[in-house]
Fold this sequence. Notes:
Layout: H1 3-14, H2 26-29, H3 37-43, H4 46-58, H5 64-80, E1 85-89, E2 101-103, E3 105-107, E4 113-115, H6 119-123, E5 124-125, H7 137-140, E6 145-149, E7 156-158, E8 161-170, H8 179-197, E9 207-221, H9 222-226, H10 229-234, H11 259-274, E10 279-284, E11 290-295, E12 298-299, H12 300-320, E13 323-326, E14 340-348, H13 361-380, H14 382-387, H15 392-395, E15 410-411, H16 414-423, H17 433-443, H18 447-452, E16 463-465, E17 470-472, H19 482-509, H20 514-528, H21 540-550, H22 558-562, H23 568-577, H24 582-637, H25 642-677, H26 682-693, H27 695-710, H28 721-726
Parallel strand pairs: 1-8, 15-16
Antiparallel strand pairs: 1-2, 3-4, 5-6, 6-8, 7-8, 9-11, 9-12, 9-13, 9-14, 10-11, 14-17, 16-17
Helix pairs in contact: 4-5, 8-19, 11-12, 13-19, 13-20, 19-20, 24-25, 24-26, 24-27, 25-26, 25-27
Bound molecules: adenosine-5'-diphosphate and magnesium ion.
Amino acid sequence: MSTLRFQALKQSLNRKPVEVTEPARRSEIFGKNVFNEMAMRQYLTKDSYNSVMDAVQNGSKIDRDLADHISTGMKEWAISKGATHYTHWFQPLTGSSAEKHDAFFETTGNGSAIEKFGGGSLVQQEPDASSFPNGGIRNTFEARGYTAWDPTSPAFILGTTLCIPTVFVSYTGEALDYKVPLLRSLQILDNAATEVAKYFDKKVTKVNATLGWEQEYFLIDAALAASRPDLVMAERTLLGHAPAKGQQLDDHYFGAIPSRALNFMRELENECMLLGIPVKTRHNEVAPNQFELAPIFEEVNLAVDHNLLLMDVMDKVAERHHLKVLFHEKPFAGVNGSGKHNNWSLSTDTGVNLLSPGSTPMKNLQFLTFFVNTIKAVYDNEELIRSSIASASNDHRLGANEAPPAIISVFIGSQLTKVLDELEKVTDGKLSPQEKTDLKLNVVGKIPEILLDNTDRNRTSPFAFTGNKFEFRAVGSTANCSNPMTILNAIVAKQLQEFKVEVDALVKDEKMKKDDAIFNVLREYIKKSKKIRFEGDGYGDAWEKEAAKRGLSNNKKTPEALKVKKAEKTIKMFEELGVMNRIEMEARHEIEVEEYSMHIQIEGRILGDIARNHVIPVSIRYQNILIKNVQGLKDIYGSDFKKYASEQLVIIEDISNHIEKINKGITQMIDARRAANKIEDAEEKAFAYCNEVRPFFDEIRYHCDKLEILVDDELWPLAKYREMLFTY
Length: 728
Ligand code: ADP
Ligand code: MG
């Protein structure tokens, strides 16, 4: 009997839900482990407090002397909460967060010691940049990398460590992380959106982009996960036959949450409360053992940090519940994958959501302005938007089951489509008073009430308008949201800059009234960007053909999708916006294609090992049992034995055929890997991994899965889909 699988099954079947104690009121513990405004008021002098708040709100620099005061206050607060260490918490381009812990403790030289944390340690650190991906930036310049305090995201305590959110830059100032470009994109978007928002309300002085992510994930028993080398090392099953019952019945979606998972969620939510992550909803997803968690939206930079932190905390809490969280976009073939919907909007310092239709025609013109500009930005940059969500793991999800396709399109619903259709007919040039009244009353004025009936939500659209925000659904569940958010912010900023120039020109040169000019520019944008709007179902040939006719890109695989990131046009745009320079753009492209190759390389090795070391040996063992059986029948029945052994003989041959295909496939795959590894150019190598190596996966898997249903269940070494998806 294959021990590991059956031991794991036994363990998982014997588990009880882990008890969780909950506070009477969640609000009481909210933000308790965060150095938030309340904690700052208590631990900082007035000057220090004001300087931090000024940095948060206006991006001003913090004076070095004050930094010493702030660090002391922060340290005292942290120690009062039981912290012994501090770390600069940052987001290198590996995808997860990084930290290096230092103790507050320092010796004084006379045999005693004190707890120390100076302003310098708060503001700047020097981790070894060479151990993080840098796409050659380090080689070109200097080995040193710096982390620097980002006061806009508050420090927090995780376990016994004070974590200080920081940016990570090279000695020469190039971004080595996700946060720097994100912060730059938020700044430029703030400037551009504020200028446009002023057309409608002079009092607006700042526009924040907001993000509410929805994190999907799978939970499986920790012992079962540990029994599968593919899950341990690749976070996805590289083989495994589909179970007799999958998600066809849709009986999991919004069903009762299983008690082990529920207790995990309760504890997770407590931890989130302490860390100030405003989680709000939890529910089952479509696939068995798939769940979703969503917070109340926040300013983008903070929301991104919270999502990263959450993923970390989820891993830790799951361990205590003997569960394993799978963040992978497609852990199980044939079963729904996981995404991380990015709900995005713009909000002014006067408290207005710019993507929310308002109660007056003027407010609705403001809404339409930001709405149409976003659609236009996505249309002009659809390929770039696609590139922002490209990864080896997300490739499995896009275009499969419930997920959005690799073609970017925008869904706005039938009601808003009608509004845009009407606006398309607006007269060229100055509007007659009658036309204006009609527009205001019957088109723009009608928006709020019609939106309420806008219930035809399309779940497969990669980019959908959902009432008062855009929902970027194609983002993968493992992604750091910074990447897609940086690109979205940047393209919308650029679009709004252009819009302002065009409107101002009409007002100045054509002597148009401001709203006439806005209507005129919007009309042109609506016409120009029409091709990106798609209300239908995103899968299948029909849409692919239609999209091709419309000239929309359909980059199915990552190396292809990433190409646009290093296109001259893209680099120029990012340089002009000041979001990233050429060196940073090219470095990122290189890191991403390299990461793709490594990903496929690792998966290929794991698949080869499992197929050769697990699948083939047990298949031979089972084949030997059958052979013995046939020999026995021959002993009993002599030349008549075939009458009784014919089906056994068929299985014996089937097994041999599958083994042959698997083994040959692996040999060819290894050859393809060797050839790919010889390629110097990182992008070319990624294409080789994509087109020459990866296709063997399906072939090898197909035959392994066939063997899974032929071979005696008691011999099979790997936990099966039904066990991983339906146990507990
Ligand atoms: P659903 O999409 O599941 O129907 P909601 O519409 O309530 O649920 O919201 C989904 C997500 O969108 C939540 O994470 C929520 O915080 C976020 N969200 C709501 N309004 C905004 C906004 N103005 N900006 C960004 N995110 C938002
Ligand atoms: Mg949603």
